[in-house]
Design a protein that fits this description.
Layout (H helix, E strand, L loop, with lengths): L1 E3 L6 H13 L5 E5 L4 E5 L6 E4 L4 E3 L2 E6 L1 H7 L4
Parallel strand pairs: 1-2
Antiparallel strand pairs: 2-3, 3-4, 5-6
InterPro entries: Nuclease_put_TT1808, Restrct_endonuc-II-like, Uma2
Protein name: Uma2 family endonuclease
Pfam families: Uma2
């Protein structure tokens, strides 16, 4: 699941939603914050990871995919 924070939303409200998704069996939840240009990744068995700039995002669920927040925000024209 990927959630993008809109101007009307807060990170805390979406993080509560992320925890609910995980409890329902979702494997990963990304919260994308366009203002902070960062992505927080929630896992069922580990603390959330905050990725920004050139931090690599890779996951065993998508072994052939490696991205950075910078690439994602540039592609979305939010850089």
């Amino acid at each position: 699941v990927i959630e993008i924070i809109s101007p009307e939303q807060s990170f805390s409200s979406l993080s509560e939603k992320a925890v609910a998704y995980l409890k329902a069996g979702v494997s990963r939840v990304w919260i994308v914050d366009p203002r902070a240009k960062q992505i927080t990744i929630f896992y069922p068995d580990a603390p959330p990871a905050i990725k920004k700039g050139d931090d690599e995002i890779s996951d065993i669920l998508l072994p052939d995919l490696t991205l950075t927040p910078r690439q994602i925000f540039a592609k979305a024209r939010l850089s």
